[in-house]
Amino acid sequence: MNAIPVFTIEDVATLDAILADFLQKAEAELTVVVDRGGNVISQYGDMTVLDVTVIAALAAGSFAATKELARRIGELEFNALYHQGNGSHIFMNSVDDDTIMITVFGPRTTVGLVRFYSSSAAQKVGELLKSLQGNVHDVAFAQAEMSTGDIFNE
Predict the structure, then answer these.
(1) 54 phi and psi angles, rounded to 5 deg
(2) pLDDT (tens digit, 9 = 90+) per residue, 31-73?
(3) Torsion sign, CA atoms 55, 100, 32, 136
(4) Residue 55 near residue 83 (C-beta atoms within 8 A)
(5) Which of 2, 22, 34, 43 could form a disulfide with 56 if both were Cys (CB 3.0 to 4.6 A apart)?
(6) Cα separation of 11 and 6, whole Å?
């Protein structure tokens, strides 16, 4: 699993724009981009809907479990999962080998619409994340700048 890339303000704005466009088109409430370990990379939408951190961890676990199920029937993985509730639903799809996109939606929309638009959104997110791999954004710290002296002297 690769490390979460370093984002600049511009990178965050680009990712937010992709997710906002997706939510508007799909008429969904929340989308969360997580790594396969369950760490939140980005989130956009109504965060009051649920505890994003817990959902991210559970979604990563769900993807890992269903990957093994897929392997047992001769598939590499199931690239999308859908959980239907009475009022709220979750659609999860693979962005790339390291990343999952989780979408929470309600009765305003359909799983077909969410699935349709999540495909192109996941592709755009994947392209952005790939472009950031190994990109250090010229961030560096000199050893001399790292001191705890001022913190503990007060």
Answers:
(1) -65, -45
(2) 999 999 999 999 999 888 678 999 999 999 998 999 899 999 9
(3) positive
(4) no
(5) 34
(6) 9
Work out the angle at residue 49's Cα, subtended by the Cα atoms of residues 104 and 53, and round it to the nearest 5 degrees. 80
Enumerate the β-bridge partners of residue 40: 34
Instruction: Indicate the residue type of 5.
Output: P
**Tens digit of pLDDT for each residue in 116-152?**
999 999 999 999 999 887 655 455 555 555 555 555 5
**Structural tokens at position 18:** 């992709």
* Burial 95-116, CB ≥16 within 10 A → b, else e: beebbbbbbbbeeebebeebee
Which is nearest to 34 in space by CA: 117, 90, 116, 106? Answer: 90
State the pLDDT at residue 50. Answer: 77
What does DSSP assign to residue 99? Answer: E
pTM (two decimals): 0.81
At residue 100, what is the residue type? I
